[in-house]
Every structure is written in C-alpha cells, then in structure tokens.
Design goal:
heterodimer; A: alpha+beta; 2 domains; six-stranded mixed barrel; 16 helices; 12 strands; B: alpha/beta; six-stranded mixed beta sheet; 7 helices; 37% helix
C-alpha cells in the first residue's frame, strides 16, 4: 500500500505536482532533443567526411602519409584494386593519385591537394559527382579536365570552362605544368574542403608526372556498412602486404574525438538540466513534508517505522521525477524522430556552419543508449532529491508533530 | 487483571526561567476492560500523560509498564513496533490519511503489522460495520462527516488488536449527535469485546459514559473514582 499511497500523494496538490512535472518534461525533452540535434550534426559531419573525402578505409605506402612524395606510390595498384573489390562487404574501390601542389588562374594561385581519380570507380567510393553545382562530371572525352570547389573558383576568379594551370614536380623532381579546363564546380557544404581539393582524371595526372598508369598513392575503399569496416580492414591487411591500411577513425582522429566530445557535451548539458530540476524537486518535496508534519507524526505514532516513512517520501519523489521524466523522454523521442527525416533548416547561418564543415540542414539522430541513460539519470535525480526531505520527515518527533496545526 | 502500571512518572519541561512539571509524580494502574476518562482543566497535563502512556513522549523519570514490558526501556525501533502492536490511538482531529479510503485507512495499520490480505479484508469490513460505516468502505475522508471520520479512526485504532486504546479528546470536534453515536459504539466495543479505553476529555457526555474518572490538575492526580 506504500506504493499506492505514495502515488496518490503525488496528486494531492495537483497544481504543484503538475508544475514540477511540466518543468521536468520540458527539461528532459529539451535535453534529449538537443542531444539528438548535436548527435545528428556530428553524424552528418562524419558521414560527409567519409562520403566526400576519406571513404571507410585507405591503403597507402607506409611512407606516403608523412612524406607526401610522388615517388611513394603503390605499384601494380590495379591488381590490388581487383582483389580488394572481391572482399565481401566492399562496395567501391578507387585508386587515387594524391599530390599537394599549386593551381593558378590568370588572376592568382592557391595551394591545393590534387586528386587524380578514375571517375567511374570514384563514384562508388565518394559522392563528389553528386555535389556539382555547375558543369558535369568528366562526361566529355577531352583530356585535362578538372573539377574545382566553389570556394576555390571564387578565390581563383574562374568560371566553368576557364583554364587553370597546375604546377607540380614529376617523379624525377622536375617542374612540370599542365593546363586544365574547369568542367565542373562542386559544393560539398564544407568550405575548407572546397577550397583545398581539386579532382582530375588519373590518366591525365599520371602522364603529367610520369608515373606508370597502374600506379597510385591511395586506394580508397567504401564498405556497405560502417559496422563492417573493421572486418573488411582485416581482410585488406591480409592481401596488402607491407602497405599501410587505415580506417577512417585512424585517418581522421578528429572525427572520433568529435563523436566523443559530442557525447560528453550532451551528458554535461543533461546533467545541468537535471541539477536545476533536482533543486526544484527538493523544494517541492520540502513543502510536501512541511505541509504534512501532522500526518507524518500520526504515522509515526501508530507504528509506521522510519524505513517505511523514508520509503514513502522516496517513492513519492521518484514518482514525481519519473512521471515528468517519462513524458519528457517520450516527447523528446517523438520530436527527435520527427526531425530524423525532416531537416532543421539553419540556412540563415549557413556560412558559419559550412566554414566548420557542418551541414546547415541538420537531421537529428537519437540513440537508444542515451534514452536509457537519461531515464536512469532521472531516477537517480529522484532518489537524490528525496534524501533531504526524507531526512526532515524522519527528524519529526511524533508528539510534537501531532500538536502542529 | 492490570495491563498498565505507572510508577512515579514525571515529565518536566525546562523553560528558560521556570521549570514546568507537566506530569508530576503520577502512580496509577489500569485494569483490562476499563472505560476510563481522564479529566481536568486545560494545562492540567492530560495530553502529556497520554503521550507518556502511549510511548510518544519520553518521561523525565518513572516507568510505564504495559503487560510487564517497561515501555521506555525499549529502543527507538522496538518502541515503534510496540506501539504498532499494542496501542491504538484516536486523535482529536481524526488524522486519517486523506488519499486513502475508509477501508484503506483501517487496512493500512494491519499491512504495517504484516497481516495477510484475507485477514485484512475481513477484519476491516467487520470493524467498519461495527462502527456503522459498512456502506462507506470506499469513501475518502473528505466525503465523510466529522463523526464518521472519527468512527473510521476508532476502527483504525482497533485494527491492530491493541491491548488498549488511547483517545485524546476524541469528541472535541464533534456535534452532540455524532458524539452520542461515537460514545455508544465505543461503549459497546468495551462491553462486548472487553476493549480497554482511556480518554482525555473535557466533555461531560464522555464523563457520563465512563466507569472510571481520573481527575488531574497541575500534573497530579487529584482523584480517581470508579463509578
């Protein structure tokens, strides 16, 4: 009956209980929605990094990532590409030449990463072909075509069909040039990426720097499911010999930090909300105890022991917290689910977001672990909030309490 | 057979200027099945005496012995258990739990005692029928009159099968009709079931029903009359 008594006690003062329940509901709903929002932002940032640049797994010569030297290329890469393509779970494998050098227009120049790709194979690993704002994706047969980012185009003051000159060192360290026509301008909604990367055909670039046609610096592998990355990586390591095989988490540790930092941030945010609620609940329960001094005195007098009185106050507080918490979790979940398929439009602040590599259209992402943790945290808040009011109740002397009006 | 023996009982409050002897050296014995009224003017020490007797207030000195158990020799938890199993309380302001029905208010005590559901159900029903509320089992206190609430309180006090019932001015908030009904019920329970009642009261109607009247003044017993 203590459970039933505690539950009914919650509703003795409907207005007061409702106020704290609504506050808890709003707090938890806001906490969960914020968490889903920031998790969605982080997920999109990571997904974008994987889809536009990193792919899931990359293979390099061990020296290449430090030296970035043209000579540190993988020879016989086509054969390796075919072998990797046959691994279960691999969706696309793209051989890339990667050279850090200069691109110039008639107006100015800029340091860039020049990526030589096989356009059809690259389509299976990254989505640059879907990010074109103008022009086409290497559709014409002509040689020396280049895709550049919108930001870089603005910087170089070039348009579609403009010519740019790529200056680089060939494999023998001789300076060489190539004139390339801009056939496509892409916008990945990541200003830093768009300003620092250009794409050319693998063949055009290998001829320019005098590398064998089946040489590459990087093999990018796209896997059907993020959960399969580690197993595919292990298989690639078996066939890649001395080459270095790395997953996106190793290639871009800042992405995994981003995930961890988001998690930490979300929990700090929710803990702050719960702390504010904790004091609200303590205040409410203190009022409850002070209003019921006489009743508590009667319960003590007729033989209700301190453990049961403590349990009654504890349950009442937990019911109060969990009612608001449960409604808040449900409302936060519904709100987050709604925006999982309908993006939140932050286009008004698009520049700020794209400068940092975030998409201004955010899809929320909610994980079940967070919901479970928040529910447990609300429960713990309820238990903590009950301690002081219960202590005050237990300190009553029955004969004094019975004399109060 | 005596069930309560009180020896040289004192309750002294230390005020800042003056010492107040609320109970001043009381010696008295109560027999099983008595229907006793403790009377006296306000401030005579009636309520304090009942609190000492009921294990609610700790005496400054002296003993309260119930069925050979020295009540104030019990530790906190044992004392609470002792009250639960041996003493029934009826308060002036009824003190029912407002969120529980009449039935639940009575049953609650037996649940604290750990009695079975079946026993609780049957005893609650028979007790509420005995106090004339067999048709109000599911009413909450706010749907009952003052007299009806006090009858529920009597049923609650009886629920634990106590050795005696202490009632502190139980009729003070009742009209004359409700007082008559309540007193008739308690008198019947006393006569037919041999339940011991000890009241503190100012009410002449209660005194008229009592078979023993103990008069207190300044914390002392002035007279102790069996009628």
């Amino acid at each position: 009956m203590i459970v039933s008594l505690s539950w009914r006690n919650v509703w003795r003062n409907k207005l007061r209980s409702s106020v704290i329940i609504v506050a808890t509901t709003l707090g938890i709903c806001a906490g969960i929605f914020s968490a889903a929002f920031y998790q969605g932002m982080a997920d999109q940032r990571i997904e974008k990094a994987i889809r536009t640049e990193l792919s899931h797994i990359q293979v390099h010569r061990k020296e290449f990532r430090n030296s970035n030297e043209i000579k540190d290329y993988i020879s016989d890469a086509d054969k390796l590409n075919r072998k990797i393509s046959q691994i279960d779970g691999v969706v696309g494998v793209s051989n890339r030449l990667v050279i850090f050098s200069m691109v110039s227009s008639a107006e100015t120049g800029s340091g860039v990463k020049i990526v030589g790709i096989d356009p059809e194979k690259e389509k299976l690993t990254t989505n640059i072909h879907q990010k074109l704002k103008e022009g086409s994706y290497f559709e014409e047969k002509r040689r020396n075509q280049v895709l550049i980012g919108e930001k870089l185009a603005e910087k170089l003051k070039v348009k579609l069909n403009s010519k740019v000159v790529i200056t680089l060192l060939d494999v023998d360290n001789n300076i060489t040039y190539g004139a390339f026509r801009v056939v496509g301008i892409f916008n990945t909604v990541n200003n830093a990426f768009d300003e620092a990367n250009i794409f050319v055909r693998h063949n055009d670039l290998s001829k320019l720097i005098d590398l064998p046609p089946d040489a590459c610096h990087e093999i990018a592998i796209y896997v059907s499911d993020n959960d399969r990355v580690e197993s595919v990586k292990a298989r690639v390591e078996q066939i890649a010999g001395d080459l270095e095989v790395m997953s996106w988490l190793n290639l871009s540790p800042e992405m995994s930090y981003l995930n961890e930092a988001m998690d930490l941030f979300m929990y700090i945010f929710i803990i702050i909300i719960l702390l504010a609620l904790l004091f609200g609940i303590i205040n409410t329960m203190l009022m409850v105890v002070l209003e019921r001094v006489k009743e508590i005195g009667m319960l003590m007098a007729v033989g209700m022991n301190k453990i049961r009185i403590f349990l009654m106050i504890l349950l009442e507080t937990v019911f109060l917290s969990l009612t608001g918490g449960a409604i808040g979790v449900a409302a936060g979940t519904m709100l987050s689910n709604y925006f999982e398929t309908r993006p939140i439009n932050l286009a008004a602040w698009a520049d700020a977001y794209t400068d940092l590599g975030y998409d201004p259209f955010v899809y929320t992402s909610l994980n079940v672990e967070l919901l479970i943790n928040v529910t447990v945290m609300v429960l713990v808040t309820g238990v903590l909030a009950s301690l002081y009011p219960a202590y005050k109740a237990l300190r009553q002397d029955p004969s004094d309490a019975l004399r109060t009006e | 057979m005596s069930i309560i023996k009180i020896n040289n009982l004192f309750k002294i409050y230390d005020g800042s200027q003056i010492e107040v002897k609320a109970v001043n050296g009381v010696d008295i014995t109560f027999e099983e099945g008595e229907f006793t009224a403790i009377v006296g003017p306000s401030g005579s020490g009636k309520t304090t005496f009942l609190n000492l007797l009921g294990g609610l207030d700790r005496p400054t000195s002296g003993d309260v012995i119930v069925d050979n158990v020295n009540v104030w020799g019990l530790s906190g938890r044992k004392l609470i258990d002792f009250r639960l199993h041996n003493i029934g309380f009826v308060f002036q302001a009824y003190n029912l739990i407002p969120v529980l029905t009449a039935k639940e208010n009575v049953e609650f005590i037996m649940e604290l005692q750990g009695r079975s559901k079946q026993e609780r159900f049957e005893r609650t029903k028979s007790l509420l029928e005995a106090v004339g509320l067999g048709d109000r089992l599911d009413s909450r206190p706010n749907k009952l009159s003052g007299g009806q609430q006090q009858r529920v309180a009597v049923a609650r006090a009886l629920a634990s099968k106590p050795k005696f019932i202490l009632a502190d001015e139980p009729t003070a908030n009742l009209d004359s009709r409700s007082t008559e009904t309540l007193l008739d019920i308690m008198e019947t329970l006393n006569r037919e079931e041999n339940i011991t009642f000890i009241f503190s009261t100012h009410d002449a109607r209660v005194m008229n029903k009592a078979r023993r009247i103990v008069t207190m003044e300044d914390g002392k017993i002035l007279s102790d009359v069996h009628v």
